[in-house]
Specification:
It comes from Chryseobacterium rhizosphaerae. The protein has 328 residues and is of the alpha/beta class. Helices cover 31% and strands 19% of the residues. The protein has one domain: Alpha-Beta Barrel (TIM Barrel). The protein has 12 helices and 14 strands. Helix 1 packs parallel to helix 2 and helix 1 crosses helix 9. The two termini are 25 Å apart.
Length: 328
């Protein structure tokens, strides 16, 4: 098993397969998009599969496919199928915005994917367009319905933003009344792809108090080990509610995660600068044993939390890079 110097077991890999996205969400990137990574700088399917295989041999048993938007990558469904066959992998999941996902849902179910995180920041079509700068709200809702029909667990991810979607918090909570979905409200983070600082008016405490004003009988649930969210349930509701302190970073103590960016950069923390590039190591002819040694060394130096990681050298340009280039 992989362990860092704090004794934490690292068994969860987040693999970003592409930086490109078919939305332009205000909290992630500028309206005109980003300077996309050149094709030759992205990892190939074979490189991604090899890296995932090395991680599973080291004890990683959970992999989440992220982006950008994963299904913007050509033939990403074939890559997902190959990853699903890796020995030692017990939990393969996916984060998507839902625009291109629906046709692949039967295959995802066949591959053993039991959980999908669906990005949805509003239940209002007009606000959806203002936030994402693209049309497609009804496609996302159809994806949500199809995931439920195929008995795939859905976690709706909602970034809470002042003057943009506060009025959506309670309607989204109400989804958990009659649907078997979890809705997770996320503090806005600075990874917005431009030099705009955020003023975090809606932190996890304020989000909770707002929900509690409408549902005073809301109950705190026990948070699973390494959970990123504070979890709650309203009596009689089918689903659950979570709040993720992504900016205030109060969940780092039990962190079990590691990230691979679309270019192959191994990052032990979202707020970490630099890292080692496993794609470059592969293209330099390194063996799997050499890759394992690199991974073990990197994880050993994993920072205690996001604040320590940021203080270790994350500059202003890096903290405003888009989540799409890091891996959502």
């Amino acid at each position: 098993m992989l362990k860092d110097k704090f004794g934490r077991t690292i068994n969860y890999l987040r693999l970003a397969v592409v930086d490109r996205c078919n939305l332009r969400c205000t909290y992630c990137m500028p309206e005109n998009g980003l300077s996309w990574i050149k094709q030759e700088e992205l990892m190939t399917d074979e490189e991604m599969l090899r890296i995932c295989s090395v991680f599973t041999e080291l004890g990683v048993n959970k992999i989440r496919i992220t982006g950008g938007e994963p299904f913007v990558r050509k033939n990403s469904i074939d890559l997902i199928e190959k990853i699903s066959r890796l020995e030692g992998l017990s939990d393969l999941s996916l984060t998507t915005n839902g625009l291109l996902t629906k046709p692949y849902i039967p295959q995802l179910r066949e591959f053993g994917i039991k959980s999908v995180n669906l990005s949805l920041d509003t239940l209002d079509e007009e606000r959806f367009f203002k936030i994402t700068r693209r049309k497609g709200y009804h496609k996302v809702i159809k994806t949500l319905e199809s995931l439920i029909e195929h008995d795939i667990k859905v976690k709706i991810n909602t970034v809470v933003m002042e003057n943009q979607n506060i009025e959506d918090i309670i309607p989204l909570v109400m989804l958990t009344k009659s649907l078997p979905v979890d809705v997770r409200f996320i503090e806005e983070m600075p990874f917005n792809g431009n030099d705009k600082d955020i003023l975090l008016n809606w932190n996890h405490s304020k989000i909770y108090q707002h929900i509690r004003e409408h549902f005073p009988d809301i109950q705190k649930l026990a948070d699973p080990k390494s959970s990123t969210s504070y979890n709650y349930k309203i009596p009689g509701f089918m689903g659950e509610v979570g709040i993720i302190a992504a900016y205030t970073r109060s969940f780092c103590g039990d962190c079990n995660r590691i990230r691979i960016t679309p270019t192959g950069m191994l990052r032990s923390c979202l707020y970490e600068s630099g890292g080692v590039n496993l794609k470059d190591e592969i293209r330099a002819g390194k063996t799997n044993e050499e890759l394992k040694n690199t991974i073990i060394s990197t994880i050993h130096h994993k920072p205690k939390d996001g604040w320590e990681a940021q203080q270790s050298g994350l500059n202003a340009a890096q903290i405003h890079q888009s989540m799409a280039t890091i891996g959502g």
